[in-house]
């Protein structure tokens, strides 16, 4: 699809593109919210279904795994099916999984419901980003992605607190009944207002690639999540999973480079700004996910706060990030990503190192306030650099860019969690009491700070090809793969 065709589409949809965006964001919000909704509900599910903790934990892990396996093949699905057909199918699958989970009499049925939900969520996120890039012209994409960023910020933070309150007053199955009406309303609205904006290219189905993608990404994601959990890096399941994942992923990449119609186009890394911004996005997401895992552990295990209170401490940060994402999106449309990223990463670096002096006396207010400022920095980076990278791609391979971007973010989240938990356990000094364990927390933030410095240095290399061409008085050249 050419830029001219895209402009025409944007013009025909201009009267309802914001309604379309709201519909898409509603679906994405429920999908992301659902990922963290069971976090504080697990003890209640364990008691009700008579489960071991390590078995119940799979309700969280399976969502991340299936989600990560589905995302890489969304570029293929977007090329094969219509926009409306794929979105409505994904939301229908999500609704079905939610109903199955809500009425599940046992763990097996509940797991099946989570698998359906995760498969749908894996399709919804990249599809939504692709549609936004096709519906909105280049000078409005920052604003649109800023609204999308609002969802990414709010949903994960609200999940644990909301589920904590719900399961105190209602049965745990009420969590699924809570989101079901939103899903149904979204399906009805999407049926009437969503247009077919993606181009069907009917790529060939390469079964071998899908199998390799599943074992490659699935193996690595499971390996990292298990290593950050109870298994540890040296356990046999982790080593086997990592080895299988690494071999399958390498084979998958080489196969994609040889195929005329790859399932996931790795040649997009030839675009320098896309590659640079993808790396920056991974580092920032790693830093964000790490703190979301470490801070609750620190507050509950070392400071004696409840799960609900530790969730409340993260809420100002989520609110700050959510409210600032639309603002940074508009700033991106006016000024580009470079200086937003530099300012944001400077804030992130400073606040991350301020988290390296935590003690057993650190107050709730200090944690909540500093995390809020830290999230302000992340908001200035996350969506602007993502948009800048995707803007460099030709419109006909945007779906590969969004699939790759979401896949790399999943990998960064799994790696970040495993890395931070490992550093915490390896640098804690139990013999020195509570302060010795807090030392491990401080070291995790020190490592995150080092990553932030690397990202800050890389951010100086961001540039907008179109703006650079305008300054030189030239018309920007069309991108070539």
TrEMBL record:
Q: Any idea where the Major facilitator superfamily (MFS) profile domain is? A: 20-467
Protein name, UniProt field: DHA2 family efflux MFS transporter permease subunit
The record, for SUPFAM superfamilies, names: MFS general substrate transporter
* NCBIfam families named in the record: efflux_EmrB
Q: Organism, per UniProt?
A: Salinibacillus xinjiangensis
Q: Which GO terms describe its molecular function?
A: transmembrane transporter activity
Record key words, sorted: Cell membrane, Membrane, Transmembrane, Transmembrane helix, Transport
Q: Where in the cell is it found?
A: Cell membrane
Q: Name one GO cellular component term.
A: plasma membrane
Against Pfam families, the record matches this protein to:
MFS_1
Q: Where are the transmembrane segments?
A: 20-46, 58-78, 85-103, 115-136, 143-162, 174-193, 205-224, 236-254, 274-299, 305-327, 339-358, 364-390, 411-429, 441-463
Describe its membrane topology. Answer: Multi-pass membrane protein
Source domain of life: Bacteria
